[in-house]
Specification:
This protein is mainly α. It folds into two domains: 262 residues, Orthogonal Bundle (MetI-like fold), CATH 1.10.3720.10; 239 residues, Orthogonal Bundle (MetI-like fold), CATH 1.10.3720. The protein is 70% helix and 1% strand. The longest helix has 35 residues.
């Protein structure tokens, strides 16, 4: 076999251990309860039917479907509306909307949910500072939670529709105007139908993100009881006796619902054609026009709801003694920040552990994603389609399902008897973090590698350059920016992964997401918000510094040119001086 085949086999083996085996164990466990705990029962559908006989699990299923469906509709509408607003020539806050969308996607949902809890709860800032007594009843109900989830996930729809609006097809709009169509009729009959694929894609992304979210129900557990499938999975493995079989069944429902959403989206796209671009299509936004109050007020309101209220509430609580004390000088303090770094503080241990796990996971996911993308784009490996499908499907697997699968695989009796059990160790957190980051990293690198001509690598191979030399001297320098972005994205995601940390962490190991969530559950709001801001600020600082150093280092390395080799001058042909 050639070197590319060996690399492809290594990638397949890694993806099998990291993704396929855990996901397969969850699916099998749903039909053979107890298989991975040494107490296998009779195969069948009895485990799947048990959910409907338990009121709590049945309620969790209906709550998850309600949240995901309403959030998909509301989030899709919000994201589409903001994307259309972004194209307005009268808008001056477009850059702020883009920044807020990316920030909300990067920030874990439990941090935003905690901010909304601090703002809208009975003793929160809205009531005690601003006298808005109606705010708790408005937010803490099933519809209010659906709106919060829509705000958390609507940036997926916003970015998807914004990308679809890159090209402007003015001819069709001009034809509609000549026929007397008003602005609103033009929107409903021409613009929105043309954007239907992007709108559906955004709604599916919102549905998947909401259905698999664990942070929001975990953050709201102390204020408003609204069980969901992901939180029910967490409860199933933290109760006595532990119900791994029931957790597997619930995880199966989560995965099945997500796959149904993706397959429904693909079926809708095949129903009709959406090719509308032509030679007269123009790239870019409309030329700027004088600013107007209306579009900018709507954008400002969106920024308030997306970032200012949840993050601002956390920042205010972190510097106050009591939330009910108001913004008075006597109520301002830095004691919450000082407590984080007190002697033998659990925060420093949790922060150090999460930094270490995130750094290892980022490096591992970057290397594995680079290898998977190379095999998919440039090799003739027979199983490269399997690699692509695995990385694509794993995007729809939430952290809770992945964590349950890791318990099934790495705590199975045969694995334990062989001395290979990783359950209860830090290593399993690293592997799960790599598995969660690889799909996104592969998507980032596939786009960059698709721009590299294969002829470059083929020419180097003809000159005798081996695989590793071609990768190190040609491919990696050309896709270095994408590789750095993929690695740093994995680092940030691993720092705040509450689902994986809550399910897989060893009992005595302090990790940052669990520390923050536990402090919040205990009512230590100042300590929890201070820890969030310190850890988040440190993460952003490290990512910025590493990005700057690597970018400048690569630019310097690529700018250094070897000295030209001057061929020897044959005797008798020396230049006349």
């Amino acid at each position: 076999m050639v070197a590319e085949d060996w690399l492809g086999l290594s990638v397949v083996l890694a993806l099998f251990l990291l993704v396929l085996a855990p996901l397969g164990s969850v699916l099998v466990q749903a039909f053979v309860p107890g298989l991975f705990s040494g107490q296998a029962g009779q195969p069948g559908f009895s485990g799947l039917a048990e959910v409907f006989s338990r009121p709590l699990w049945q309620r969790s299923l209906t709550n998850s479907l309600f949240l995901a469906t309403i959030a998909a509709c509301l989030g899709g509408a919000m994201g589409t509306g903001l994307a259309l607003l972004r194209q307005s020539p009268h808008l001056r806050l477009g850059g702020a909307l883009d920044l807020a969308a990316w920030a909300v996607i990067i920030l874990p949902s439990f941090l935003l949910a905690q901010g909304w809890t601090l703002f809208a709860s009975r003793g929160g800032l809205a009531v005690t500072w601003f006298g808005l007594d109606w705010m708790p009843d408005l937010v803490f109900n099933r519809w209010g939670l659906a709106v919060i989830m829509a705000l958390k996930a609507c940036p997926f729809a916003y970015l998807t529709v914004t990308a679809a609006l890159t090209w402007r097809v003015e001819d069709q709009f001009d034809a509609a105007r000549l026929c007397g169509a008003s602005r609103w009729r033009l929107l409903w009959t021409v613009r929105l139908p043309l954007l239907l694929p992007a709108i559906l894609s955004g709604m599916v992304l919102v549905f998947i993100d909401t259905l698999g979210d664990f942070g929001l129900p975990a953050a709201l557990a102390t204020t408003y009881r609204f069980p969901t499938l992901t939180y029910a999975i967490y409860v199933a493995i933290n109760q006595s006796p532990i119900r791994f079989d029931l957790a597997g069944v619930l995880a199966f429902y989560v995965t099945a619902l997500m796959l149904c959403a993706v397959l429904s989206y693909l079926w809708l796209l095949r129903r009709r054609g959406f090719g509308v671009l032509e030679a007269r299509a123009e790239r870019g936004a409309a030329p700027p026009a004088p600013a107007r109050i209306g579009p900018n007020m709507v954008a400002g309101l969106a920024l308030m709801l997306l970032l200012v209220i949840p993050i601002g509430s956390s920042a205010l609580v972190s510097v106050t003694l009591q939330m009910s004390g108001g913004l008075e000088m006597s109520n301002l303090t830095l004691q919450h920040y000082r407590a984080l770094f007190a002697e033998r503080a659990a925060f420093t241990e949790a922060l150090g552990t999460s930094l270490r796990i995130a750094a290892i996971a980022a490096c591992g996911s970057g290397l594995l994603a680079a290898a998977a993308a190379y095999v998919t784009v440039f090799s003739d490996f027979r199983l490269k389609r399997l690699i692509d499908v695995t990385c694509t499907l794993s995007l729809a697997v939430p952290g809770v399902v992945l964590g349950i699968g890791y318990i099934f695989v790495w705590n199975a009796p045969p694995v334990a008897r062989a001395g290979l059990s990783l359950y209860g160790t830090e290593a399993i957190l690293v592997l799960a973090a790599i598995a969660g980051a690889v799909p996104v990293a592969v998507r980032v690198l596939l786009g960059a590698m698709a721009q590299v001509p294969a002829s470059m690598l083929q020419a180097a191979a003809l000159q005798g350059a081996g695989l590793w030399r071609r990768l190190a001297t040609i491919l990696f320098p050309l896709v270095s920016a994408a590789l750095i972005s993929a690695t740093l994205t994995a680092f940030g995601a691993a720092m705040f992964d509450l689902a994986i940390s809550s399910i897989l962490r060893p009992p005595r190991l302090e990790v940052l997401p669990v520390y923050v969530n536990r402090s919040f559950e205990l009512g230590l709001f100042g300590q929890a918000t201070a820890a969030t801001l310190v850890a988040g600020g440190l993460t952003v600082f490290l990512i910025s510094v590493i990005r700057a150093l690597t970018t400048h280092g690569l630019a310097w390395a690529l700018a250094v040119k070897p000295a030209p080799i001057t061929p020897p001058i044959p005797p008798g042909q020396e230049p006349i001086r």
